[in-house]
Amino acid sequence: MDDTSAAAERRYFELLRLKSPSERLAIAVRLSRAVRELAVAGVKQRQPQATSRDIRRGLAERLYGTTVAERLFPKRG
Fold first, then answer.
1. In principle, which of 3, 25, 44, 68 could form an S-S bond with 64, CB 3.0–4.6 Å?
2. Predicted pLDDT at 3
3. What is the pLDDT of residue 75?
4. Sign of the alpha-carbon dihedral angle for 24, 26, 30, 32
5. Which band of pLDDT confidence, cut at 50, 70 and 90, is reported for residue 76?
6. Is residue 36 included in any domain, yes or no?
7. How many domains does the chain have?
8. Are the C-beta atoms of 68 and 60 separated by less than 8 Å?
9. Is 10 inside a domain boundary?
10. Sign of the CA dihedral 44, 50, 55, 61?
């Protein structure tokens, strides 16, 4: 973490290790959802008139890259 002191980072991981596996999984799921929500918000901000397909394609591109997004959402026409 570039924006966190070494001491704070050590403490974070220390606290994380105290959590049960299911608690750590729940944290990971929440973080994953947050990343997706931020990515969708970014697509909507860049493309205010985007359709739901455009948003899904933009999300796929952001998360998996252009090659994957193009395979999943080929250009129409």
1. 68
2. 85
3. 85
4. positive
5. confident
6. yes
7. 1
8. yes
9. no
10. negative
